[in-house]
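This section describes the prediction task in plain terms. A model, or a person checking by hand, is given the sequence of a single protein chain and must write out its three-dimensional structure as a string of tokens. No templates, partner chains or ligands are provided. The sample shown here is typical of the held-out split.
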Amino acid sequence: MMGVDKAALLAWLGRKAVTENALIGAVYDGLISRIKRGEFDEEEVER
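The expected answer:
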């Protein structure tokens, strides 16, 4: 299985965070922070 390209994901989220709606921007910023801190699993679990 192919993993997620973390750098590309962070770059995409960073571009999406630039918005006129402050709430949406804060959500994207929060996701970026959590990914950088490593709060998400990086491997997909087989079920």
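For orientation: The mean pLDDT is 86.
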